[in-house]
Design goal:
It contains six helices and seven strands. It has 172 residues and is an alpha+beta fold. It has one domain: Aminopeptidase. The chain has a seven-stranded mixed β-sheet with strand order 1-2-3-4-5-7-6.
Length: 172
């Protein structure tokens, strides 16, 4: 299957992605979305790249780099909690702030959802989005995902402060 869109394409992680991943993973602005509590060392990320197992049936996950057609990486998109028996998989996306609001996330999600339904043959794709993340809620609902539930006070965002998280589904 071709994972190319009008302006972007999706590709596997490469060792050359180390510096880019280091920048993205150590950006505290996205830590609440990725449930990260501390910075990553280059060594840890290098080991991740070396050991990244791209067989979703074994690892139950896959992470891809979103690139412009000039090969510039602009984000990551991943599948997680792949469950072949129940025919479902979670999806998450991160777009570099320099590439936001240009339609790239829409293209990337559409490409990966098509891959999920046509290649992995899942029945549904779901995502988890914090209630305050209005941009992501709008993006995924625009793409046909519907709110299926709410996890009350799910994520701690400050001492004694919790935020709800929605689960959205796209069912074939």
């Amino acid at each position: 299957m071709n994972l190319k869109g009008e302006h972007i394409y999706l590709r596997a992680l490469e060792p050359t992605d180390l510096d880019t991943l280091y920048k993205w993973e150590n950006n505290p602005a996205i830590w609440t979305v990725s449930n990260t509590l501390a910075p990553f060392s280059k060594f840890v990320l290098e080991q991740y790249l070396v050991n990244a197992h791209e067989d979703i049936f074994t690892s139950k996950q896959i992470r891809l780099i979103i690139c412009l057609h000039d090969n510039t990486p602009i984000g990551t998109i991943e599948l997680f909690d792949f469950d072949a028996h129940h025919s479902r998989v979670g999806i998450g996306i991160m777009i570099d702030e320099t590439a936001e609001n240009k339609g790239y996330a829409t293209q990337a999600i559409n490409l990966l959802v098509k891959y999920c339904f046509e290649v992995l043959m899942v029945k549904q794709v779901y995502c988890n989005i914090s209630a305050s993340n209005q941009k992501s809620l709008h993006l995924f609902t625009k793409l046909g995902f519907t709110r299926a539930g709410i996890k009350k006070q799910w994520n701690k965002i400050a001492p004694n402060t919790f935020e709800d998280e929605y689960i959205l589904q796209l069912i074939l």
